[in-house]
Amino acid sequence: MCDPYNTEESLEKVLDNFTKSNFYLWLYPEKVMQKMKETIAKIGRSPPPKLIFMPTRELVRLMMRALLDFGPAYKESAFLLKFGLIEKEKSPSNESEDY
Questions:
Q1: Residue 95: its pLDDT value, please?
Q2: Contacts of 74 (CB under 8 A, 6+ apart)
Q3: Domain ranges of the chain
Q4: Any idea what DSSP says for residue 58?
Q5: Alpha carbon distance 95, 7 (integer Å)
Q6: pLDDT at site 98
Q7: Residue 33 CB coordination number (10 Å)
Q8: Residue 82 dihedral angles phi and psi, to the nearest 5°
Q9: Residue 5: how many CB atoms within 10 A of its CB?
Q10: Complete DSSP assignment for 2-47
C-alpha cells in the first residue's frame, strides 16, 4: 500500500517488494489454488479467503486519516462502521441508509 502523504518513496518500496515477491509461492500456492478451482467447479463459487490483509495499527490509522482527508464525505456512523468501530444495527429502517 502506498502512503498518500509520501507517495513517491512509498510507491518505490511497493514496486520493489512486488518485483521481489513470488506471487504463486507466497500468496496463492498451487495446492491452495487447486482446491479453490475444485470447489468452484463443484458448487459454482468459492468461499472467501480467511485472511486477505492484516494491517498494523499504524497503517490502519494512516488509512483512516487518508480516507478522512481524501475520501468522500461520510456520516460519522458510516465512517465508524467502515472500520468496524461500531456494529450496524439490525432493523428494517437500515436498508435505506447511505453507508
A1: 52
A2: 67, 82
A3: 1-47, 55-93
A4: H
A5: 37
A6: 47
A7: 12
A8: -55, -35
A9: 11
A10: --TTSHHHHHHHHHHHHHH--IIIIIS-HHHHHHHHHHHHHHSS-P
How far is 87 from 16, CA to CA, in rounded Å?
38
**0.70 surpassed by pTM:** no
Summarize the confidence of residues 61-89 as an average pLDDT: 82
Q: So what's the pLDDT on residue 61?
A: 86
| Separation of alpha carbons 14 and 46, rounded Å | 29
Residue among 63, 71, 15 at smallest CA distance from 84: 63
- At 5-39, the pLDDT tens digits run 888 888 898 888 888 877 777 777 888 888 888 88
| Side chain identity at residue 84, one-letter code | G
- Residue 48 is classified by DSSP as P
Place of cell 494512516: 62
